[in-house]
Amino acid sequence: MDFRLSCFALSVLAIACAIPTGAWPAPAPANSYESCIAVIDKNPTEAFEMALAWRDRGGGLPAEHCAALALIALDEAGEAASRLGTLASRTDAGTLSERAKLLTEAGNAWLLANQWENANAAFSAALKLTPRDPELWTDRARASAARQNWTDAEKDLTNAITFEKSRPEIYVLRASARAAQGDKPGYRADIDAALAIDPTFPEALVERGSIKLEAGDTAGARADWLQVLVRAPGGPAADAVRTRIELLEVHDR
Q: What mean pLDDT do residues 34-54 have?
């Protein structure tokens, strides 16, 4: 039985969470932007209309940005991504970091729209502006993983680790990329590295359980997976291990 968790799949599915809705530095009154953003969760259609009306009154880039984020909430991720990319090229888009943020949001929106090449292009453009950002390297790796380009995904995750060595999730993602290429020693080394940083990291525990199961340690696998249910019962890792534990029980009968 192959129970290995596809951590990249989980990450891509959760990519909407990576699109921030924080305050935008702009000359317009701060509460205008914050008010627009606050409406998105409650009524994205109203937020979109509010943003357009504010834009027509001279709201500028902050108004356009709110409109784009509202479109994501309205399941119009492709249109939102296109707008965010256009915003990043404007002369009033701000500093290099702020432009990179817009391109990153565009890339994540392209991922939501299942347009992997466009996502890769947006993240690549952002990396030219802020090449030491581990989050960006990780995001581009997700775009590569979505196309099953595991070699490029691994390279980008290695770069991410170069700039941020204390985040277990990056090691788990690289482990999945290595596993997809048949690199079992590298896969196991990354899971060990993730658990050395955080012994309770759910996705790493799922993977270690799979490693134990492959070695014939059914009890050890079950123990790791039960720990996931205790520590993170509501997350995607818990959903994965519930299925695995059920299969173990069927197998043991």
A: 95
